[in-house]
Structure formats: structure tokens, C-alpha cells
Specification:
alpha+beta, Glutaredoxin, 4 strands, globular
Length: 117
């Protein structure tokens, strides 16, 4: 009798990467995405490798949500649109460019500012 395995082969790698990173106060990361968008998946994969949790605003077919995203991202309507501590970063290519420049880790290490009461 054969067994079907549903584990993602990268799960162990992600866990190892997360354990090896020093803990720091988390940055607030928000991402607007579509469920099956390959660039969105790629951006979430990089954040996962970094051990960063994020708020995923799925906007599939929701024009009002897309309008809110565009208002926050200088009119850009493509997905993903990524924000770190409320600052607009850009899309997937911008996120990877920050990582290649060594800037992403620094931005992710800055704790989110306290919410206004």
C-alpha cells in the first residue's frame, strides 16, 4: 500500500532558516496579493525564508480593495504591493532588489512603531 505525502519539501528548510535567525522585534509587513499570482507567491516565499510573518490582503476580484491598494502605492495597480512598517516598498522585483542590496534585512529588523491610541 503506497502512502501519499502532502508535505511541502521546503517546510524543513523554512523551519531551519527561521530557527537560525536571531530574534528581533518584528517589522509590520503587509502585502496585497492575488491568490495565484506567481510574483505574489515569490514575494511571500522570500518573506517566509526570512522568517517574517505578514498580513496578506488578498484582493482577487475586489475592485474596492484594489483601489485602496493603489491609493497607498502611488497609483500602482499591479500585485503584489508590499509595505514594511507602513512604508511602501513596491512589488516583488523591488523586494528582491532590496534583498540583493542588503537593505531588506535592515528594514525587517526595525520594529513596527506603536499604534496610536
Amino acid at each position: 500500500m503506497s502512502q501519499a505525502f502532502t508535505l511541502n519539501p521546503f517546510d524543513g528548510l523554512f523551519a531551519l532558516v527561521r530557527r537560525s535567525r536571531p530574534t528581533a522585534p518584528p517589522a509590520a509587513v503587509e502585502l496585497y496579493s492575488w491568490q495565484l499570482c506567481p510574483y505574489c507567491i515569490r514575494a511571500k516565499w522570500l518573506l517566509s525564508l526570512k522568517g517574517v510573518s505578514h498580513i496578506d490582503q488578498k484582493i482577487d476580484g475586489d475592485e474596492a480593495a484594489r483601489d485602496r491598494m493603489a491609493a497607498r502605492s502611488n497609483g500602482r495597480r499591479s500585485v503584489p504591493q508590499i509595505f514594511i512598517n507602513g512604508e511602501w516598498i513596491g512589488g516583488c522585483d523591488d523586494l528582491y532588489a532590496l534583498d540583493a542590496a542588503g537593505e531588506l534585512d535592515r528594514r525587517l529588523a526595525i520594529a513596527a512603531p506603536p499604534a496610536n491610541s
